Amino acid sequence: xxxxxxxxxxxVLVAKWSTLFALIVLMLGAYTRxxxxxxxxxxxxxxxxxxxxxxxLIELKRVESEFPGKVVEPEKxxxxxxxxxxxxxxxxxxxxxxIMSWRRRxxxxxxxxxxxxxxxxxxxxxxxxxxxxxxxxxxxxxTAHLLGGMFTTALLWWYALRQGRLFVGESIRxxxxxxxxxxxxxxxxxxxxxxxxxxxxxTNYAALSCIDFPGCYPGNGWPExxxxxxFTIVSELGVNYEGGHLNADARTAIHMLHRIGALLVFIYxxxxxxxxxxxxMLQLQNVGKLLVIVLLVQVGLGISNIIFSLPLWxxxxxxxxxxxxxxxxxxxxxxxxxxxxxxxxx
Length: 346
What we know:
This protein is mostly helical. The protein is built from ten helices and no strands. Helix 5 (139-164) packs across helix 10 (312-340) and helix 8 (248-277) runs antiparallel to helix 9.
């Protein structure tokens, strides 16, 4: 292996591991949010003015004087800080990818737009993390933070796919290639919209607004809903939104719309999977089969959240599998776009 190939392999390897690390950060963020630990530390980036959680008597006395009215809850605070440690490490990994890519900028196969976008995105993610705390978990900010994490994970994987030319073999022309391209792109958009709906459901504490399935309540399949209040993006400043502030009908509207969206996305992804399996591309066929399996797992987790009243591990897994679905759809887009223009360069 020559030095050029070795350096390319290194940046791809770092991108792969960074994608896995980003998935862990997503899961930790979901665990923190679903454990109601999002305000475990009232400041940022530290916790009560230090890099770890204050627990000694001297530290707790300092907290009493510097943060009047605040009570340290070590269990929640550590959940928040561990998430921040991992997020910070992810930021350093992305910085290393950007530096390695820049050093190889004169190489024709080196992509620069994606590393630059990742660096900007993770910087903005840090701001969203800060605003999540300082603006007291405003739903719009928390949802944007979740989406930013999903975008970061997807872009890292997209970079690894393109830079490493992964999941692409011999070019095979398919009669349905253009349709596959459009269908895969639409799938990507739909999955992102559904993730946004899921984030809005979670951050507005609407996950248990309906306690039955497939109806909302036993004997009441179509409940009263307030869509006008359900999607108020701009919220009042200075209000603590932990626990949610929307009325019951608004939360029910959010929950039901998320269910309807899940059904539509489920049907569409099944259709896309069928198209992929029927294609002439072996890699795409395998991705299509994997998509069906992960999709069924995700639906099962979503139903389990309702039936078993939102068990923590199920809710966290629901977030993680949503990210996996996103990565699978990103892979499908990568394969079909490579088939149409293998010489494309970002």
